[in-house]
Amino acid sequence: MLALIVLLTLSTDGIRQSSDPGSPITPLWVVLVPPLVAISLTRALPWSAPALEPTVSNARAIRRSGMALLVCAVLFPLVIGITEIDDSAEYFPAKVVILDGIPAALVWRSCRNIKIARPRMAWQWWAPIVVIVVWTILSQASPWIAVPTFQGVDLGYLIVGATLTALTAGVGEELFYRYWLQTRAEALLGRWGGVVLASFAFAIMHLGGDRQGNGLLVEIAAVIIVQGSFGIMPRAGEATSNRVPEMTH
């Protein structure tokens, strides 16, 4: 709520959802409607289904691995901010090492101490697709969406960049923040404690530069609203797992 107040006060024209050149300013209502509708849809899922909660056999081991993963989550934006490599070729290797390589070793050592629940009902597999389709239409394919221009950008560069982004963001980020960090945070802090922690870490990871042009406060508020609300989507419903943001991302 505080982040929304900051944006409504200091960034009345809207926000930039991307730091890519030519990224348009998006009105706040365009940003907020898709995740709010998606969250509402997940809340409409059957209440009789059991919540998909992780089961822990060794809380101490999971606590250690969870803290180590949280350190990685904090370390990544710090490294990117200090080195200013977010627009260079070194960005992708740094992300793979800090958010996937090191965490993979940490998770491997503690994986036997936590059991992640799997969907038991058929609708738990197809229902997220409905949410994703609606979210995609509202956020990507609606007539009010401003389409960024890529004039002057080399096609080969665009293809390579898009592929690397899809792999490191769509796969790597979701693996780290949702599958590894959030499940352990939920096991230790409870369902919503884990959701909030993982969503906040995911949001802060997207800090970089002053894309909003209105200072650091607006930048922080923007990533909390955009990426933070995106992170709430997976667990808004009792029986939805992390598949909604994983597949959407």
Protein traits:
globular, two-stranded antiparallel ribbon, 249 residues, mainly alpha
What this model shows, in words?
- With 249 residues, this protein is mostly helical.
- It has one domain (2-248).
- It has helices at residues 2-10, 28-43, 59-83, 91-110, 123-140, 155-189, 191-205, 216-232, 243-248, and strands spanning 15-16, 25-26, 55-56, 114-115.
- The strands form 2 sheets. It has a two-stranded antiparallel ribbon with strand order 1-2. A two-stranded antiparallel ribbon has the order 3-4.
- Strand 1 (15-16) and strand 2 (25-26) form a beta hairpin.
Topology:
Blueprint: H1 2-10, E1 15-16, E2 25-26, H2 28-43, E3 55-56, H3 59-83, H4 91-110, E4 114-115, H5 123-140, H6 155-189, H7 191-205, H8 216-232, H9 243-248
Antiparallel strand pairs: 1-2, 3-4
Helix content: 55-70%
Low-confidence stretches: 236-244
Distance between the termini: 24 Å
With strands numbered from the N-terminus, the spatial order across the biggest sheet is 1-2
Main beta sheet strand tally, sense and closure: 2 strands, antiparallel
Briefly summarize what is shown.
The protein contains 9 helices and 4 strands.
